[in-house]
UniProtKB/TrEMBL annotation:
<dbReference type="InterPro" id="IPR017871">
    <property type="entry name" value="ABC_transporter-like_CS"/>
</dbReference>
<dbReference type="InterPro" id="IPR047641">
    <property type="entry name" value="ABC_transpr_MalK/UgpC-like"/>
</dbReference>
<keyword id="KW-0547">Nucleotide-binding</keyword>
<dbReference type="InterPro" id="IPR015855">
    <property type="entry name" value="ABC_transpr_MalK-like"/>
</dbReference>
<comment type="similarity">
    <text>Belongs to the ABC transporter superfamily.</text>
</comment>
<protein>
    <submittedName>
        <fullName>Multiple sugar transport system ATP-binding protein</fullName>
    </submittedName>
</protein>
<keyword id="KW-0762">Sugar transport</keyword>
<dbReference type="InterPro" id="IPR040582">
    <property type="entry name" value="OB_MalK-like"/>
</dbReference>
<dbReference type="GO" id="GO:0005524">
    <property type="term" value="F:ATP binding"/>
</dbReference>
<dbReference type="InterPro" id="IPR003439">
    <property type="entry name" value="ABC_transporter-like_ATP-bd"/>
</dbReference>
<dbReference type="Pfam" id="PF17912">
    <property type="entry name" value="OB_MalK"/>
</dbReference>
<dbReference type="InterPro" id="IPR003593">
    <property type="entry name" value="AAA+_ATPase"/>
</dbReference>
<keyword id="KW-0813">Transport</keyword>
<dbReference type="InterPro" id="IPR012340">
    <property type="entry name" value="NA-bd_OB-fold"/>
</dbReference>
<dbReference type="InterPro" id="IPR008995">
    <property type="entry name" value="Mo/tungstate-bd_C_term_dom"/>
</dbReference>
<dbReference type="InterPro" id="IPR027417">
    <property type="entry name" value="P-loop_NTPase"/>
</dbReference>
<feature type="domain" description="ABC transporter">
    <location>
        <begin position="4"/>
        <end position="235"/>
    </location>
</feature>
């Protein structure tokens, strides 16, 4: 049993800097949990608290049901993999992987068989006698993983373990880590600031901002049912487009456009029924706007095209549909959410729209998101 439970965890650095606020959630036994959020949001702090490398100012942390607030890192039975995986340069791959077992004083025969097993799992068998300097970045990363898993810990903690690798290797290694974790079935907490990494690897993802947990959920739910504007804009690439709009009955006014919102949207969000000139923030994901000439919809808007980025498989079409909503109360919002003046739509590559055109845009209105302007929370 190695579930990890956080209960109203707070971290105050020094006397004043409140880095984590009332963090509460559970990580299930065997689960792959990802902490994601912008730089400085407290991901590493939270992870280091679980590892025991950072003191807990208040709250309770349990691993496998045991209160561990004051338990030494070495007595927590967890293994940590950092961004800079410091391998011993003068030791071979075999000796690097075996190191924690030597430290634990295991018999030689058992060390040898565990190292062989780990090397097979990570496809390092043919590299066991090499020094780290003669390995590629991905191979070195696997050795670091090997050193962590050879101990058979109750949980793995990883802090941006792939950020030193090039883009292609990152994609390959994240698939490898995810499948390795599934094979070993060990509770894992993985920190990243990359939402794509979070979405592709995690069973669940905890989205943090400014030391406050925003939402913890499956990748699919974060995408489909974000709790607030921050999660909505942080998850998904390109970001969700956000606009101030007015809902009157079934009619939504967005800039100079009006269209009818389908019945189903109101079934999911009963509190929007009977709206009378109600101010809302509306969110439209790029993939929910298409070229109406190719895929007509009952909800159509027209907008000047400012730029077309043809990517081959799709075209990113920048549209001017008025000034986007920006969280004025949040100094980080522009940096976090993007300072795009234009809406971005993901058109089929068959679209022939060009910069300077007025495009007819089909909105997949069933997929609209609605938020309260003041609280910035989702309207349901
Ligand atoms: N030892 C410390 N003393 C004071 N403040 C600290 C200390 N360590 C971290 N902080 C602050 O706590 C906040 C959270 O830091 P943390 O390292 O957890 O962020 P992070 O989410 O991991 O960011 P990044 O993505 O940049 O690694 C930051 O504002 C940071 O400056
Ligand atoms: Mg960090």
């Amino acid at each position: 049993m190695s579930a990890i439970e956080l209960h109203t965890i707070n971290k105050v650095y020094g006397n004043s800097f409140h880095a984590l606020h009332d963090l509460s959630f559970d990580i299930r036994d065997g689960e792959f949990m990802v902490f994601v959020g912008p730089s400085g949001c407290g991901k590493s702090t939270a992870l280091r608290m679980i590892a025991g490398l950072e003191s807990i100012t208040s709250g309770e942390l349990r691993i496998g049901g045991r209160l561990v607030n004051d338990v030494d890192p070495k007595d927590r039975d967890i293994a940590m993999v950092f961004q800079s995986y410091a391998l011993y340069p003068h030791k071979s791959v075999r000796e690097n992987i075996a190191f924690p077992l030597h430290m634990a004083g295991l018999p030689k025969a058992e060390i040898a068989s565990r190292v062989d097993e780990v090397a097979r799992t990570l496809e390092l068998t043919t590299l066991l006698d090499r020094r780290p300097a003669l390995l590629s970045g991905g191979q070195r990363q696997r050795v670091a993983m090997g050193r962590a898993i050879v101990r058979k810990p109750a949980a793995f903690l990883m802090d941006e373990p792939l950020s030193n690798l090039d883009a292609k290797l990152r994609v390959q290694m994240r698939a490898e880590i995810a499948s390795l974790q599934r094979k070993l079935n060990v509770t894992t907490v993985y920190v990243t600031h990359d939402q794509v990494e979070a979405m592709t690897m995690g069973d669940r993802v905890a989205v943090m901002k400014g030391g406050v947990l925003q939402q913890v959920d499956t990748p699919q739910n974060l995408y489909k049912r974000p709790d607030n504007v921050f999660v909505a804009a942080f998850i998904g690439s390109p970001s969700m487009n956000l606009y101030e709009a007015v809902l009157n009955g079934r009619t939504l006014t967005l800039g100079s456009n009006n269209f009818e919102v389908p019945e189903r949207v109101f079934e999911y969000r009963p509190s929007l029924n009977g709206a009378s000139h109600r101010q809302v923030i509306v969110g439209i994901r790029p993939e929910h706007m298409n070229d109406a000439a190719i895929r007509p919809s009952s909800a159509e808007i027209s907008a000047p095209v400012t730029l077309v980025e043809a990517l081959g498989s799709e075209s990113m079409v920048h549209l001017n549909i008025g000034a986007p909503w920006v969280d004025a109360g949040d100094p980080d919002a522009v940096a976090d959410i993007g300072d795009e003046r234009a809406a971005v739509a993901r058109f089929s590559p068959k679209s022939t729209v060009r910069a300077g055109d007025i495009a007819r845009v089909a909105v997949d209105a069933e997929e609209l998101h609605f938020f309260e302007p003041v609280t910035r929370t989702s309207i349901w």
